[in-house]
Amino acid sequence: MSDIRWLDDDEQRAWRAYLRLQGSLGAELNRRLQASSGLSLADYDVLVRLTDAPDGRLRPYELQRELHWEQSRLSHHLGRMQKRGLVRREECDEDRRGAYVLLTEAGREAITQAAPDHVETVRRLFIDALSPEQLRALEGLAVQVLARLEDPAGERA
C-alpha cells in the first residue's frame, strides 16, 4: 500500500472540479437538447457520426469505436433510434453477417433542426466562458490525455 501515489490537495481539487464539470455540462446539454429537439445527447452523437460519414452510413463497430461505447449500449440505443425512425439497419453485401447503420431522412431532419440550438448552447455554456488562450490550452490538455488513453503503454508511464 505504500506504493500508492495519493492525490495531493491541488490534484484532488483539480480532479473533482473536472468530474463536476463533465457531469454538470453533460447533464445540462442533454436537458436542453431534449427540451428543444426531443433528441438525447447520445442520439445527437450518433447522428453527428452518421452525418459525417460517406453516404450517411457506418458499420456498427465503426460507430462503437468512434463513440467509445460498449457493444450492448450501442445495440440497445440503435434499436431505440430505429423505432423512432432516426436510423435503419441494412445488410452488408460484402459481409453477409455484417450490417450498416444508415441515417434516415427523419434522422437527417432531426439533427438539422437540433444543431443550431445545440451549437448555441455549447457556445453559451462552454466556448464563451473561455478565452482563446484557454481553449487552446484545453485542446492541448485533451489531446495529451487522449494520447495516453489510446496508448496501451500509457498506463505504465
UniProtKB/TrEMBL annotation:
InterPro entries: HTH_MarR-typ, MarR/SlyA-like, WH-like_DNA-bd_sf, WH_DNA-bd_sf. Pfam families: MarR_2 (PF12802). SUPFAM superfamilies: Winged helix' DNA-binding domain (SSF46785). Residues 11-147 form the HTH marR-type domain. It comes from the Bacteria. PANTHER family: MARR FAMILY REGULATORY PROTEIN, TRANSCRIPTIONAL REGULATOR, MARR FAMILY. This is MarR family transcriptional regulator. It comes from Actinocorallia libanotica.
